[in-house]
Amino acid sequence: MSNKSLITLIVGVVLAVIAWNSFYIVSQTERAVLLQFGRVVQADVQPGLHVKVPYVNQVRKFDGRLLTLDAPTQRFLTLEKKAVMVDAYAKWRVKDAERFYTATSGLK
């Protein structure tokens, strides 16, 4: 393989990687925020195919469906020393992706 062919191959691979990282998809069930160097640029990205600048912009996606957090059953003692089994759960949904991202630092 000649030097010209090798350089062409390397440039082609680099351009393919940049093109691959330039597009992102937000599905109907997701909420997303677009970040530029860690700051929110676009608060609520609509579902569909979008373009971003690779390595400058990042996209954080969150599930927008109704989610359930089920805590394990725990045993507690009352003041009368009787055992009580407590089973708890929470149902929640992300409606404001920017507010959720800033409140949780983007943790899932």
Automatic annotation (TrEMBL):
A Pfam match: Band_7
Localisation: Membrane
GO cellular component, one term: membrane
Residues in Band domain copies: 25-104
Membrane topology category: Single-pass membrane protein
Gene3D superfamilies for this protein: Band 7 domain
Transmembrane segments: 6-26
The entry's keywords: Membrane, Transmembrane, Transmembrane helix
InterPro entries, sorted: Band_7, Band_7/SPFH_dom_sf
PANTHER family: MODULATOR OF FTSH PROTEASE HFLC
Name used for this protein in its record: Band 7 domain-containing protein
Native organism: Pseudomonas savastanoi pv. glycinea str. race 4
